[in-house]
Amino acid sequence: MFLGAVFLSVVYCLYLLIGPWGAIRLGGPDAEPAYTFPTYFALVFTAGIAAGVVFWGPAEALFHYQTPPTYFADTAAPESNAAIGGALTYALFHWGLSAWSAYAVIGVPIAYFVFNRGAPLRVSTILAPWLGVDGLDSPWSRLIDTLSVFAVIGGIATSVALVSRQFLAGTAFQWDVTAGTLGPVLFVGGLTVIFTLSAVTGVHRGIRRIAGLTVVLFGLVAALLFATGPRGFIVERGTSALGSYAVNFVPMSLYLGGEWVADWTVWNWSWWFSWAPFAGLFIAALSRGRRIRTVVFTGVVATSAATMVWFLVLGGTSLWVQHTGQADILGAMAAADSAEAVAGFPLFEALPLGQLFMFLFLALIITFMATSADTSTLVVSTLAAERGLAPSSATIVFWGVVQGAVAIAVLLLGGAGTLEAMAVLTGGPFAVLSVVALVGLTVTLYRDEKGHRSVLDVIRSRLPEIRTHHDLDPPEED
Length: 478
Description:
By secondary structure, this protein is mainly alpha-helical. Helix content is about 75%, strand content about 0%. α3 packs across α12 (about 290-325) and α8 (about 180-200) packs across α16. The radius of gyration is 23 Å and the shape is globular.
C-alpha cells in the first residue's frame, strides 16, 4: 500500500509539472503571490523537514554501507568499495522525490479547492469532490480533521522528543556533558517557548524569519563541507549515485525486498505520510497566486534537489572518512545509544574547521526543529478552531504547550517507541486518503478545467516556425 501510494504520488506530480493542469493559477487569473519565491521555498522546505535531515545526513549512507540494501546486496559486500554507490543511492531515494511527493498530493488538492472553489482551509477539503464544498461539515470531514490533529501532534511531539534526546546524546558523546533527568525537560521547554512564540507572531514575522535563517545555515554547512572535504570523491560518487537513482528509481519504488524494505523504505514512507496533513495544509495556505506547476516544482523538485545535495555532501564525506580510515564513525555509532545522533561528531573531528562545523551543526538542529514545530502549532490551532475563524493567540499558545508537554512526557516516561509507532501508523490512513484526494482532483480538473496548455505546448509555441521544403522552393517564372 505504501509503495504504491508513494509511486502514484510521484507519477501524478510529474504530470502536474508538465501537463496542462499545471498552468492553473490558484486563486484565479488575477491572484498574486503573498511571498517572493525565495521566501516561499524557505517556508515550504523548512516546514516539511525537521532536524532529522541533520542527523541522518552523515548517518544514513553509513548504515547502508555497513548493511547493503537487499536491492544491491548481490553486487556489493558490506563496507566494500562497491557498497558506497548503493548506500548513497538509497539515501537519495529515501529523502528525494518520493518523500516530498507525499506532501504535494495532499497540499495541491487542498489549495485548489480552497482558492478556486471557496472551500475551508482544512485537511478535510480533499473530500470536496465527493461531498461538495457545502457538505464539508459532515462527520467524515470532522473525522479526517481530528485524525489530522492526532497525526500532527504525534509526529511533531515525537520528533521534538527524539531530536532533543539525540541532541543531548551528541553533546554528551562529544563533550561528556551529562544532562541528567532535568536536562531533556529544560531543553524541550526552551524549544517549546521558541516555536510557540514564533507561531504566535505568525507566518509573516516569526516563522518566515526562522525559516530564512535555517536555509542560510543549511546552505552554509553544505558549502563549507564541500569546500573543505573530499570534493573529488563527492563529485565522482555523487554523480554516479544520481545516475543510479535515475536508472533504478522505478524498480526501487516497487521493490518488495522483505524485512529490509519494511524497516527502511516503508517506515520512511509512513513517516512522511504522517507529516503530510500539516505540511500539505501549510503548503496550500502559502500557495495562493501560484500556478499548480510552481507549487509542485517548489514542493517536490526544488526541495528534493536541496535535500539530495545535502545527503551527497554529508553522506559522501562520511563514507570517504570511514572508507579511507580517517575516522571510525561506525565504531562510534555502535558504542552510542542513539547511533545517528553521534555520526556527525567524529566526522567533523576528522576535517578542518571541526569546531565550527559542530557549532553550526547544533544550531541547525535547533532552527530546523523550531521551524517544523511552529508550523505544526499553527496548523493544529487552525484545525481545532471554529470553522471560518482564525485561531486566537491563546489557542496557538495552548497547542504549542500541548505539543511540548507531549514531548516531555515521551522523554520522562520512555514512551518514544510507542508514540513513534502511533505517529507512523497515522501515515497509513493518509496514504489511502492521498489516493482519494488525487482521484477527486483528477475528476474535477478533467471536467471543469479546459483550455490550459502543457509545458510541451508552451515550448512548441515559442519555437520559430519551421518552413517546409515547399515553402523554400523559388517561385516559378512566368
